Amino acid sequence: MPRQTLARIDLEALRHNYATARSLAGDARAMAVVKADGYGHGIRAVATALADIAPKYAVACLEEAFAIREAGLSQPVVLLQGVHDSGDLADCARQGFEPVLHSENQLDGLIRSEHRPAFWLKVNSGMNRLGFHPDQMATVIERLQNSACYPELLGFVTHFACADDPDSPMTADQTARFVAATERWPDRMRSVANSAAHFLPGQQRFDWTRPGIMLYGGSPVLGKTGPELGLKPVMHLEAPLINRRLVRAGESVGYGAAWVADRDTWMGMVAIGYGDGYPRHAGTNTPAAIGGHRIRLIGRVSMDMLAVDLSGAPDARVGDSVELWGGTVGVDEVAACAGTISYELMTGITARVPREISPLPVRE
Ligand SMILES: *Cc1c(COP(=O)(O)O)cnc(C)c1O
C-alpha cells in the first residue's frame, strides 16, 4: 500500500474560483493561466475541469501547451514567453498556440518565418523583464505592417509589477503607459490583469484578464488570505501520522536539536518533508491540522518527515491524516511562516506526492 501522503485536488473549488475571476473581470474574458503544471495541481486535470467555461488558456512554454492538446482540448493557448526557437512557430500555427512576442529576436523570427500563427505583442510598461518599450511600438507595428504577419496580430499584453499592493501607484502608472503605447491600434485586443489586478477597484481590464494563482485559491493580495477574498482552497496537502511519543521536558527533537521541550509534550511525526516539496523554511509554530484541530510544527523539517506538537489534538492516533494546508490551514498562512508565497509552495510539491483528483459531477 502506498503511503497516504497526497495532494487532494478539489476541482469544484477550482471552478468556483474561475467563476469568481470571471465575475471580477467585468466585460473582459478570462484566460485560465495553467503554467507550471497547473500551479502544481496537474495541468491535465485543471485544464479539463475548466474546459466548458474557459475560452482560452495561458502557459509559459510550448511543452505546457502540448500537454493541453494531449488532454484532448482544442481552445487557443497563449504562450506567455513566446517561442524560444522560430522553428516552433509551425507548431503554433498548426495547434492554435498564440505566442507572445517580447523581443526583437522573436519579431525577426516571426517576420522571416513562413508560418503565420496568431500572436500577441508584449509591451514593457515598467516591469522591465520582457517586452518592447512604448517608444518602440510604432516601429514594431510598421515592420509588421510591411510583412505578411500583420493580420495575425491579436493585440497587446503587459504585466504588472505591484498589483498585489493596492497602495502602490505603480499599477496605475503602468496602465497609463500601456494605454498610451497601444491606443493608436484600437482594433487590437488588450490584456493586462494578473490575479491581483482583479481585486483592484477601478482597474481597467480591457479584453482579456489572466488569472493564475486565484484559480487555485492562493491569495494574490498582500496581507489577505484566499478565503478572505472569497476563494476556495483547491489543493489539500495531507500526510499520515506515523509516530506519537511523549517528549520529556528538556529533550530535543530533530536535526540540530532545534526544538527543546519546555514541558512534557506529546509529539507526532508526519510522513512528509522537503523531499515532497514541503518548505524546509517552515519553522516551529507553522500551523497544520488534524481532524479540524489546529496543531503546530516543532523543530526542523526533514526530507521525509516533520514533527508536530500534538497538544492541540490530544486524541490523535498513528495513521490519522494530518493536513499541511487545505481547508483548515490556509496555504497563505504556511507560506507566510516559510517566508514565501503560495505560488512557490504549490508549484514546489514534487512528483513523489500523488495528486488525487476529486471527481466532478457529470454535467449535461
Ligand atoms: C503567471 C502569469 C500570470 C498569472 O499571474 P498570477 O499572479 O498567478 O495571477 C499572468 N500573466 C503573466 C504574463 C504571467 O506570467
Automatic annotation (TrEMBL):
EC number: 5.1.1.1
Residue span(s) of domain Alanine racemase C-terminal: 234-358
UniProt entry tagged with the keyword Isomerase: yes
Annotated positions of the N6-(pyridoxal phosphate)lysine modification: 35
Keyword field: Isomerase, Pyridoxal phosphate
Keyword Isomerase among UniProt keywords: yes
Reactions this protein catalyses: L-alanine = D-alanine
Cofactor(s) for this UniProt protein: pyridoxal 5'-phosphate
Residues annotated as catalytic: 35, 255
Residues reported to bind substrate: 129, 303
GO molecular function, one term: alanine racemase activity
Listed InterPro entries: Ala_racemase, Ala_racemase/Decarboxylase_C, Ala_racemase_C, Ala_racemase_N, Ala_racemase_pyridoxalP-BS, PLP-binding_barrel
Pathway: Amino-acid biosynthesis; D-alanine biosynthesis; D-alanine from L-alanine: step 1/1
Function description: Catalyzes the interconversion of L-alanine and D-alanine. May also act on other amino acids.
NCBIfam families from the UniProt entry: alr
Family: Belongs to the alanine racemase family.
Name listed for the protein in its UniProt record: Alanine racemase
Gene: alr
